[in-house]
Amino acid sequence: xxxTAAPSISAAPGGPSLPQERxxxxxxxxxxxxxxxxxxxxxxxxxVGVAVPIAVVAAGGGVVVDADGNSLIDLGxxxxxxSVGNAHPGVVAAxxxxxxxxxxxxxxxxxxxxxxxxxxxxxxxxxxxxxxxxALFNSGAEAVENAVKIARKHTGRQAVVVFDHAxxxxxxxxxxxxxxxxxxxxxxxxxxxxxxxxxxxYPFRDGLTxxxxxxxxxxxxxxxxxxxxxxxxxxxxxxxxxGFVVPAPGFLTALSDWTTANDVVLIADEVxxxxxxxxxxxxxxxxxxxxxxVTTAKGMAGGLPLSAVxxxxxxxxxxxxxxxxxxxxxxxxxxxxxxxxxxxFEHDGLVERAEAxxxxxxxxLRTAQASDARIGDVRGRGxxxxxxxxxxxxxxxxxxxxxAVVRYAYEHGVIALxxxxxxxxxxxxxxxxxxxALLGEGLDVVLEGLAAA
Length: 453
Ligand code: PLZ
What we know:
It contains 14 helices and 15 strands. The chain has helices spanning about 30-45, 75-80, 90-100, 115-125, 140-155, 170-175, 205, 210-225, 250-260, 315, 330-345, 350-370, 400-410, 435-450, and strands at about 55-60, 65, 70-75, 130-135, 160-165, 195-200, 230-235, 265-270, 295, 305-310, 375-380, 385-390, 415, 415-420, 425-430.
């Protein structure tokens, strides 16, 4: 593709062979993108928002190409999904082979090897060397719902404990588990009962050690819920939508000690943090945390919809035969994609690559912070890093500035995302396939946006 001819709005070949460059040939959004957004307004429900108003025709490596021929640097990976790179060649080949063999049987009607192989891989890769079992689903929310079902069945208890700033999905149970009202919950109730929220460890805002924050949370569970009523404590090892909140060291392990002592199921929601994203295969590993149950999705299948619940065999097997399932869960095409993506995570050095990306991100952003008091906090691990923007005089969150930075970024050819309960976090989630030069240029543009705001 040349930089002058705009491609048609239909798909163009993507993958890592796309020129790895930021290239603007029109304003962003350009005319073809704007045209699609007019059709979108007339055809798509208004509740389905779009953060970056471009019409994508191809993506790969560290770029996303739009219908006007603009090539944008991708610092979002479709919210931590295309970690192996968009249209990764191994994923493409595996999908093509599977789609030509068979597309669907419904695993609960007739079985196939791909599903079992993904379960075996998850049992092997998730933290802990205890005996495990896995069940596959479609979305992160569906995995979290099933993890809660299983924990309740295993314990015979009902209460589920979640944290401030938590995000677990948009279905009815997961809306209840999610903290933030706007935009996730507002007007969508009533919500599922027996969900109890306790304070998270948020070092930038609470100044507590991990042990102190855990004590505060545990005391609240004991006083307000009762261990004997608690089926599960559900926690993101690093919070995603909530603002890349990294709990203080010792917080997660103190929770784990308490859940173990009280026969409560500890569920780590690794939907966003899993699969090399944080510079470990799973974020729990940074703290030596061995959760009883882990939920995964997103990065696992290189862009195809697949999610999983993996946990201790005795917990997972407590659900009766026929109690878990769904028409599409563990779809064979998604499983083929996952096996190819998992092969890349394990054999292409992507855990190390995430760590190296983290070093670049943290160095650059901490340097920027030293001369800009609006950057209140720089935090994260691996290729999951964020800045929290504040009013330097008061320390109050600055969501207006955050929105302006992200808008400047896409208008100048960089996709960056926001997050956070207060809407004041710019988060960096690049594909692990991005090269250093492109990552550096993407950061330059975001920091230019901050300087210009
Ligand atoms: N658990 C930790 O991050 C999805 C949501 C985007 P689904 N996060 C992105 C949006 O605005 O809808 C997520 C997550 C964690 C669960 C989920 C839910 O995963 O695949 O979106 O259902």
